[in-house]
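#structure-requests
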Amino acid sequence: MDKKLFKMILTICLVSIAFAFILWNFTVFYDFFIKALRILRPVFFGFFIAFILMRPYDFFNNLFLKAKFGKKHPKIFAGISLLIVYVLLLLIITGIVWIVIPQFVTSIVNFSSNINSYFDNIKNSTNDVINYLNEKIPDDINLVEKIQGYISQIPEILQAVFLGAFGVTSSIISVIIDIGIGFMISMYFLVGKEKLKLQLRKVILALFKEKTAQSISSTLSLISQTFSNYIVGQIIEAFVLGTLSFIGMTIFRFEYPLLISVFLGVTSLIPVIGPYIGTIPSAFILLLISPLKAFWFIIFVIGLQQIESNIFYPRVVGTKVGLPAIWVLVAVLVGGGLFGIIGILIAVPTMSVIYDLSRKRIYDTLDKKKISVK
């Protein structure tokens, strides 16, 4: 038997046995995988923070390297660039902690203290509707009793939501600690990124043939560029939407402008369904105050999203990702179905990479076959 064929058959057999073994002991491997992810969570946070800060770090570092004094002492000015980036980041975080969070907490406290009066507003409005329905609906229909039953359950639902929020406090503290460790790890990623790239390239060249290694390197470069463009773009887009929402809500005198604007900005990070996730609960908050305000708020958000999606989003995110709208929707559905909220967040850049690689492969194949498609 040919040695090449024998190796291929042996490899297939070994892979099949390993795959069957993993499936047979799926629970054990899954638990081990989850524990490994938990242990490595600070490393992932560090890599993510470094990924976000890479562009501003490169900007300041290149700025120094262009000057004569920067070329003479590159390591010193690399450290200065790192210091500048983290000082700016800490200033932003401090601004959020000292300015945004207190007002955010105040809005939540005010909302909680006024919940009884808001509930009375809804109850009075419901009674008006019920009185109207009593005249229009036959007596044998229990719609009125059902509405009253649903309304009476609202306080219990809100209480359960708040208890659930307090129940995850320990998990939040654990995540904050991991993020703190991740900040320190991210410094090593940023300072040693060129060395890490060189080491990775050496490993690829050692394991694969030159042509394959070049293809892998170009693919990794595409992945890095796509994810960087998308993540930075989404963060800018969320900040723009939250800011515009706060300004508009303040001008039109909607209640809780900061609370709702922060919520809209955060949920806008989720593609396609993010605006709906942010709008519906926000409208419900204003519905408790006044149904008319909730209606005008929905109109306001629709107009704001039209401005954001047609003016800001194409400039900030859309042109950088370059993925058709239909594939964005498919990516979100598949990513969310497989991996939940994390899958939704990474689905679009992942699909963009697959789309670009597939398109390149298709066009290369058509060129080889000398086929022209218009």
